[in-house]
Design goal:
Layout lengths: L22 H10 L14 E2 L11 H7 L10 H13 L4 E5 L2 H12 L5 E4 L4 H9 L3 E4 L20 H11 L7 E4 L12 H13 L4 E4 L3 H11 L8 H10 L3 E5 L10 E5 L2 H14 L10 H14 L2 H20 L12 E5 H4 L9 H13 L1 E2 L1 E3 L1 H4 L15 E5 L7 H16 L7 E5 L10 E4 L9
Parallel strand pairs: 1-10, 3-4, 5-6, 6-7
Antiparallel strand pairs: 2-8, 7-8, 9-12, 11-12, 13-14
Helix pairs in contact: 1-14, 2-11, 3-11, 4-5, 4-10, 8-9, 12-16, 14-16
Bound molecules: ligand P71.
């Protein structure tokens, strides 16, 4: 079986029509959107690779599950199904639903961070770091150096750098550390996994110092797939076994179920500690909803419970990551600069190499995502300096080592032919890269600026003059 090509372990039962646009329409649409792909209308998008978040196609079983929604205010049957699925597959004791991942991050940050404390993490994620900062914490990057190098082929670029973590503990002392925020399949590094050996060692280091570890489990199953393929000793374990082993080292997790769990909305906070669980259940009623629904409908929790079971099936993950690899390989063959190894949830273009003529102050990744949209109607997401935002203290722009454009693949949605068209468009923009123009801000909001910022080309009116 495994010497054959992967193919989707499903067939298509319903289709959603896409609207094709002309280049002139797209020029107008991106200008109206302030050259920010977040501000485009989805009707104007052909292939939507903005995110894999909440964009999955649900299965017929999940759709059937929606009809079993128990919309009781309290004690919905679907909550207990979700709780059982999380306990079985992730292994945490207490499960508190939230409307999505950042809802869980908010509750955890408020409960576990005191002002002035440090929160080490294996690379920042925008919403995670923002909630840590709102709670008075300071994020400290402890990911391995390879994560910041788009050309490093290291197989576990998500790993925690134990020296960096150890040094922080020594410098500031354990009482100044809120917890270790351990992300699996690190998003901002390009969808890169941690090894189980590293997870074990990082968590053991924390345990020796009495520091708790909270896991961002958003893409933990994708991480488990890479462990199975790449880490000695795991080839014969199931994804479910590997997932349980990852989680077993940590004290709890935040989850955006909109990714691995194959739903359009939802998340949860899970913890093992009884007192922390009580405090979280108490706080969730203030911000999300009662602790048996957390801002979700009963039907959403049912779809999540079913999605969790589907997400750990090997053939599902093989096809999901196989599709991402297919796109990545096509771009590598054309020598387009992408982050290597190819990640779990998308292919990340290295905008600094792609557009060396655009200075970082003119946001090459933002320009590239706008140009790609103009070329073909493919929508990507900037993951560079605009996403990184400003320094809390100096207020200056920060320029992370990675200036990337993410082509994120929704799960079970697009075909290989869509990947071909995407590759053709990226290659054609690459061939015309000297015709892409840098951008400057015309509007910059205070929080998570990448969502709503507006820009204009530094010269002329168009971002892509090919
Ligand atoms: C993604 C998203 C959604 C997103 C969020 C912020 C900016 C742009 C897009 C969300 C994540 C995530 C990780 C590792 C927590 C969240 C928040 N990712 N951790 O990649 O990837 O979850 O969106 O459900 O609130 O497009 P939430």
């Amino acid at each position: 079986m495994h010497n054959r090509s992967w193919a989707e372990p499903f067939k298509i039962k319903m289709v959603e029509h896409l609207r094709m646009t002309t280049r002139a329409e797209r020029e107008r649409a991106i200008a109206e959107a302030g050259f920010n792909t977040f501000l485009l209308r989805s009707e104007d998008v052909y292939i939507d690779l903005l995110t894999d978040s909440g964009t999955s196609a649900m299965s017929d079983r999940q759709w059937a599950g929606l009809m079993l929604g128990d919309e009781a205010y309290a004690g919905s049957a679907n909550f207990y199904h979700l709780e059982a699925a999380v306990r079985q597959y992730y292994g945490y004791k207490h499960v508190i639903p939230t409307h999505q991942g950042r809802g869980a991050e908010h509750i955890l940050s408020r409960l576990c961070i005191s002002p002035g404390q440090y929160v080490p993490g294996n690379m920042y994620f925008t919403t995670t770091k923002h909630h840590q900062e709102l709670a008075g914490g300071k994020f400290v990057d402890v990911v391995v150096d390879q994560a910041h190098d788009p050309d490093s082929n290291f197989p576990f670029k998500g790993n925690v750098d134990l020296d960096k973590l150890g040094r922080l503990v020594e410098e500031v002392g354990t009482s100044k550390i809120a917890y270790l925020c351990l992300a699996t399949n690190v998003n901002m590094a390009g969808g890169q996994p941690c090894s189980l050996a590293n997870i074990r060692d990082a968590c053991a280091l924390c345990r020796r110092h009495g520091i708790r570890v909270f896991h961002d489990a958003t893409r933990a199953v994708e991480n488990a797939y890479f462990i199975k393929l790449r880490e000695p000793g795991y080839a014969h374990k199931s994804l479910a076994e590997i997932l349980r082993e990852i989680c077993s080292h940590t004290d709890g997790c935040t989850m955006s179920a909109k990714k691995d769990c194959l739903v359009n909305i939802g998340g949860w906070l899970a913890v093992n500690d009884d007192e922390l669980a009580d405090a979280a259940r108490n706080l969730v009623v203030v911000y999300e909803g009662l602790h048996t629904y957390g801002g979700l409908a009963g039907r959403d929790m049912e779809a999540m419970a079913i999605g969790i079971r589907e997400s750990v099936e090997f053939d599902h993950m093989r096809a999901r990551i196989g599709q991402v690899e297919y796109l990545g390989r096509r771009l590598m063959e054309a020598e387009v600069p992408i982050v290597r190894p190819i990640g779990g949830h998308g292919v990340f273009l290295n905008a600094r190499k792609f557009l060396p003529q655009i200075p970082r102050e003119q946001f090459p990744a933002q320009s590239l995502s706008a140009a790609l949209y103009v070329d073909s109607g493919v929508r990507a997401m900037e993951r560079g300096a605009v996403s990184a935002g400003r320094d809390l203290i100096t207020g200056n722009n920060t320029f992370p080592a990675l200036e990337l454009v993410r082509l994120t693949i929704p799960r079970r949605v697009y075909t290989q032919a869509h990947m071909d068209v995407t590759a053709e468009s990226v290659i054609s923009v690459y061939e015309n890269r000297d015709k892409v123009v840098g951008l400057e801000f015309t509007y910059e909001p205070k929080h998570l600026r990448f969502f709503q910022s507006r820009f204009r080309p530094v010269t002329g009116e168009r971002v892509f003059t090919a």
